[in-house]
Amino acid sequence: MKSNKITRWAIIFMLAIWLFIALERGTSILEGVDIYIFILIFLISILDLLHIRKVERAEKQGLPAEDELSLHIKQKTGFQAYRLTIYLWLFLFMFRNLFPTIELILGTGLIITILLHPIIQVILKKRSDEK
Amino acid sequence: MKNKIKELRARDSLTQNDLAKAVGARRETIVFLEKGKYNPSLKLAYEVAKVFKMKIEEVFLLEEKA
Hints:
The complex is a heterodimer. Chain A is mainly α.
């Protein structure tokens, strides 16, 4: 599938840029703010690869990767994640004194934001979706 | 909403994958439907009923509120 190839190249491109920046700065890859960039790229890559695997598996079985239920869950997940993200950032800014640096607030917020969507999706998939 | 998908699938010797392919849905959706955890759209309900050569109301049964 064309979009899968694009995603794979996007991941390789992101990793290459990150590696270049880290080497250019002469810092260790897992040091300071770079660790957040590494975690973010790692999480994005894992989520994208899982998506690619899901699509390819469905294609092999001759089934669609998306249908009305998955779309419904996706929409619900998006809304819930959006709502929780608002509270997350509010909480992070209210308790900013607990964090020694701005980077730590931003990094933590971004990582939780990325993780919220798949976590909520798993919960919604497990739960009865609609009675 | 209750449905007879599981019984009808057994009657016609269809697997969940077969039914999913026939109606253009994912297998997980068929699982959710059989468990009564998802109320399908009118289009999907129609497609499912068509596979079993039955009417929608013969496959899907609306539970009356007490």
